[in-house]
Amino acid sequence: DIGDIIRGKDLYRGNKKEKKQRDDLEKNLKEIFKNIYNELTSTNGKKGAEEYYQDENGGNYYKLREDWWTANRETVWKAIPCGTHDGDTYCRPTCGGDSESPSQAHDKCRCDGSNADQVPTYIDYVPQYLA
């Protein structure tokens, strides 16, 4: 899922074309988090951040990536709704109801009600299917 990709923990490699795209994405993410690290440690002048996020994994910045995802996952979820058309639904029933008749997340993969703005954490664990 996107959280695993951002945190550098995604295990799915796919076919050769997908592997190349994933490698390119990982290279870009390393550069992005390198820039975040440099900005964080130079402008704030905080030695604690420099020590805490010290990279021991060849430019991966795993601790920083993990913390960034924890801090920003809700914003990321809001930025990537499942489609932009009215009536779009997630591929399975996900909202309310009971176990016999749950309803669809019909508005950009969000349910109705007071919790509609919460990240649906079950999507983090949707298995990746091999094509």
UniProtKB/TrEMBL annotation:
Designated name of the protein: Erythrocyte membrane protein
Superkingdom of this protein's organism: Eukaryota
InterPro entries, per database record: Duffy-ag-bd_sf (IPR042202), Duffy-antigen-binding (IPR008602)
Recorded GO MF terms: host cell surface receptor binding
Lineage: Eukaryota, Sar, Alveolata, Apicomplexa, Aconoidasida
Transmembrane segments: none
Domain Duffy-antigen binding stretches: 1-130
GO CC terms: membrane
Pfam family, one: Duffy_binding
